[in-house]
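1st attempt posting a full record on here, be nice pls
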Amino acid sequence: MSTSKLDTSGIFQSLTLESQQTRLSLSADAILFRKNGIEFRSEKPIPTWTEMTVDLQSPRDGKKVNCIGIVVECHGNRHAGYFVSMVFMNLSRQSQEHLAQLAYSQLA
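the predicted structure (as tokens):
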């Protein structure tokens, strides 16, 4: 069992997700950070196993973190929206540690 809350740390000001068919730009407060990925809402469904490029940008120093994510779950409906779970692939150790800190800081 786990609990979470939306990221309010201000670490990332925006998130851009892009695949061949889809491009999303999400605010930081619309993202749930996990130790190995993210969860977010989307107006349109994204097929499971879709590979997407993810760009995170820090408002503090403007640095961008680029990574590849795979959609592992997408459920919902067209009326309420879709809840998407994405796992990041091939992250550096430093990026993994930073993501884990974000995920655990949400639980504090």
